[in-house]
Amino acid sequence: MAQSWRKVWKTFWRFKALYLMLVPGVAYLIINNYMPMFGLTIAFKDINYAKGIWASDWIGFKNFEFLFMTKDAWRITRNTILYNAVFIVLNTVVAIGVAILLNEVRKKYLARFYQSVLLLPYLISMVIVAYLVLSILNVENGFMNKVILPALGIDPISWYTEAKYWPYILTTVNLWKNIGYQCIIYLAAIVGIDPEYYEAATIDGASKWEQIKSITVPLLMPTIIILTLLAIGRIFYADFGLFYQVPLNSGSLKPTTDVIDTYVYRGLITLGDIGMSSAAGFYQSMIGFVLVLTTNFIVRLKDKDQALF
Amino acid sequence: MKTNQMNQFAINVFFILASIACIFPFLLMFVASFTSEQSIINEGYTLFPSEFSLDAYRYLWDNVSSIGRSYGITILITAIGTTAGLLISSLLAYPLSRVDLPLHGLLSFFVFFTMLFNGGLVPTYLIYTEVFHIKNTLWALIVPSLLTNGFYILLIRTFFRTSIPKEVIESAYMDGASEFRIFFSFVMPLSLPILATIGLMLGIGYWNDWFNGLVYVSDSKLFSLQNLLNRMLQNIQFLQQNTLGSKAMSSASIPTNAVRMAMAVIGIVPILLIYPFFQKFFVKGLTIGAVKG
Prior knowledge:
The complex is a heterodimer. By secondary structure, chain A is mainly alpha-helical. Chain A has helices at residues 2-14, 16-39, 62-69, 71-104, 108-119, 126-137, 143-152, 166-191, 195-203, 208-233, 240-245, 254-257, 260-270, 274-302; strands at 45-46, 57-58. In chain A, helix 4 packs across helix 8 (166-191). Chain B is mainly α.
C-alpha cells in the first residue's frame, strides 16, 4: 500500500511544474465562480449587516414567498422569456437571410465591406448604444421627434415615458447590434458547404432560389438547430446592458423593460433589498441551470460533437 | 445573364441600405458633436445642421484633466486586464491540454462547469465586497472580468492540443528544458494566432466594460471612460458638477448636448481605428466562439 501511494506521489511530483501553472487560474475560478455558487444560499437568509452576511439567520423560503407574492415575479419572468424568444426567432431568420445574400455578392471586396459595416454595432458598448438611441429618440431634439415625425405630420412622442413602444424599440436595437455577429456565424457555415452540390444543381437547371431552398437551408439546418437550442438554454438570462442602459433606467418604462437581470441589479444596488434580489437571482440560476442541462441533452441526442458536454 | 445582373443589383441595393441603417446612428452622433448647441436645440440632431461648432471638443479639451484621467484608467485596465487574463488563461489551458497529466479531465470539467452554472450577481457582489473589499479600488475594474468566459480557456486548450506538434515539446524536454521554459519559449510563440484572437476579444471587453464600474465603483476618481459616459447619460449635469470648479465657464454656456455626443465619439474612435487592421482576427474570434471546431 505504502509502495503504491509513493508511486502516485511520484507521478504527481513529476508534473509539479504543470500543477503550479494551474494555480492562478484555479484560484481565480474558486473565488470568482465557485464561492458565489455556494453563496447562493444567502437567498435563504435574513440578511443582517450588523450580524454579518454569513452569520445572518436562516429563514427558509420567506424571501421566495415575498418575491412570488409580488406582481414583479411574473412580470420579469414574462418579459425575460418573451423578449428572448422574439430575439431568437427574428435574429435567426434575418441573420440567415442576410448571410445567404452576402454569399451571393459577386464582388468579394464589396462582400467584405458590407460584412465589416454590419459588424460595427456589435463592437461598441451598450452605453454608446444608449447614446445613439438617445440621439434618435430624445424628446426635445431627437431625430424622430424633430425630423421624421414632423415630416409625417405626427405629433412628437415622449419615447422615454411610454412603455408601449419599447418592445419594438428594444427588439430593433437588439437586431441592429447583433445581426452582424450572427450573420458571420451562418456565413461561415454557408461557405463550408461543398460547392459540388451547387455545380450539380446548376447543371440540372435549378434556379438560384431553388438552390437556396433545397441545398443551402437544409444543409444549414444542423447549425440552426444547435444554435437555437443553445440560445433556448440561456432564455432565462437577459442582456442586462440592453434592458438597463438603452431605456435609461426610466421608471415608467418598467412594465415592458424590466427583466430578471435588471430586477436583481436594482434590488441589490439601488434598493438594498438583498432578500428579494437574492431570491430572484437564485430562481434565475436554478432554472437557467436546468434549461442549459436540458437543451444540451437534446443537442447531444442530435449531434454529439456539437453538445457542450 | 440579364436576370443575374438584375439580381446582383438588387442585392447590392439591399446591402447599401442595410449599411446605411448600421452607420446612420454613428453619423448622427458624429455630426451632433460638431454642431453648435443652439442648432441642436432648434433643429434637433440632424446630419445637416445649420451651424457647425467645435465648442464641444473645446470644452473637453478644457476639462482634459478629468476626461483624460478616465481615458487613462480605461487604457490602464485594458492593458493590464488583457495581459493578465491572457496569461492566466494560457497557464491554465496548457496543463489541461497535456493528456499525460494525471487528472487533466477532472480539471477540464472544473473549468467547464463554470459555463453551466453560476451564482449570479448577488453572491458575486457580496463576496467581492464583503470578503475581498474591492469596492472603489482599481481592482474592481479588472479582477471580475479576468476569466469571464470558460470557453476561451477551452479554445486555447484545444489549440495547444491540436496545433502544437508533440515532437517540439518532447525534444525540448529531452534537451532538459523545464516545463515553464517549454511553455514560454515554444508553446506561447507557436500559438500567436489563437492568443491574438482571444486577446483582442478580451481587450474589446475591457475597453467597453461599464458593468464592473457601475456595480463596484462610486468614486468618480476611478471612473473609466465608459463609466463617465454612463453617468453622463443618466445625469447630464454630472460633468459640470465634477469639473466646473476648476474652469471658468458658466453652466449655461456648456454645450451639454454636443458634449455628450463628443464624449461618445472619443469613446469609439480607438475601436474604429484598430478595427480595419484586426478585422480578420475579429471575424475569427467571433466564429470560433460560436460553433465548435
